[in-house]
Amino acid sequence: MNYEGQICRGPMERSSFMLPVEVGCAYNGCKFCTLFKHLKYRELPMEQIEEELKRVSTVGGNPRTVFLGDGNAFGLSTEKLLAIIERVHVHFPGCEGIHMDATVTDISRKSDEDLRRLYEAGVRHLYLGIESGLDDVLAFMNKDHTLEQAYRQIDRMREAGLIYDAHFMTGIAGKGRGIENAEYTAEFFNRTRPSRMINFSMFLHERAALYEEIQKGTFRPADELENLIEERRLLELLKPWGQEVLYDGFHDMIEFRVRGKLPKDKESMLARLDERIAVEKPGLTAFVK
Fold it and tell me: From what superkingdom does this record's organism come (predicted)?
């Protein structure tokens, strides 16, 4: 596979075949993100996409699920997505679902008919970078949506049959706001009910625009202890919503990860967080790469 940049996708997609359909991210404006800053966004030509499909099918590849990369593949036009999906099914007749990242704005730009056609063609899971349940945090981080817009577009994609999965970040609200962010984010998730939840935790890098805010003193990063406490509070507040939910949480500074199925594993996940919180000591400093 010819791939430009850093591969970043939800851990639930580790068994999916990743098919690049674009380079970079069409939005590329989130203040905390550095994944695509060094890349010039462009759509890959159909000839290149078809060549990759042929390469894999020629050696016997016939994956059940395909993940379209990169940053927000759902932002491609409906017609191009349908053309790609048609070629996927030609080369991979066993494919049962096509998944990709999306933004709230990507969904808003597609009509109800577009969403329905994409579902009927085989699109299933869409991963949305929700990040936080606080509107002021979304605005500060230069996200492309408000909470009300997210509610509306998630309802629309669900009405079409598409499956909503969520990316979010503990620590994104900054030092001293972890519990507040946990409570509002839990409220958002209890209302929108994602089927998969990935907590990437706040990843700080000196090349991110957010680093300038840290230097100016307009953003104070939460340390890992506060991240752990925030994650615990969020999990504590999540309610069963009639379906099994896959949860995976990462932490940047420490080798610790909590994952499981909700609500079945909720108590054991909380217990693991309690154990780790007891190990961590107050006074940790923010870790900036």
Answer: Bacteria
> For 187, how many CA atoms within 13 A lie in the half-sphere containing its CB?
11
Residue found under tokens 């940049």: 5
How far apart are the C-alpha atoms of 126 and 123, rounded to whole Å? Answer: 8
Per-residue pLDDT tens over the stretch 69-99: 988 999 999 999 999 999 999 999 999 999 9
Cα–Cα distance measured from residue 163 to residue 126, given in angstroms and rounded to the nearest whole number? 6
Query: What is the fold of 1-162?
Result: TIM Barrel (3.20.20)
Residue whose token pair is 């625009």: 209
In terms of C-beta density within 10 A (0-12 exposed, 13-18 middle, 19 or more buried), how is residue 106 classed? Answer: buried
What tokens does 91 get?
């080369």
Q: Please state, in angstroms and as integers, the Cα–Cα distance from residue 243 to each residue in 44, 182, 196, 239, 262, following that order.
A: 37, 21, 10, 11, 8
29 bridge partner residues: none
pLDDT tens column, 151-191: 999 999 999 999 999 999 999 999 999 999 999 999 999 99
Task: State both tokens at 115.
Answer: 């969403």
Confirm if 66 and 28 have CB atoms less than 8 A apart. Answer: no
CA distance 132 to 172: 7
Which residues, including other chains, have CB under 8 Å from residue 28's CB and lie 6 or more apart?
36, 37, 41, 71
Strand segments, DSSP code E, in 21-139 are 22-23, 42-43, 65-69, 97-102, 123-131
Domain ranges, ordered by start, for the chain: 1-162, 169-289
Q: Name beta bridge partners: 185.
A: none
Tokens for 41? Answer: 């966004």
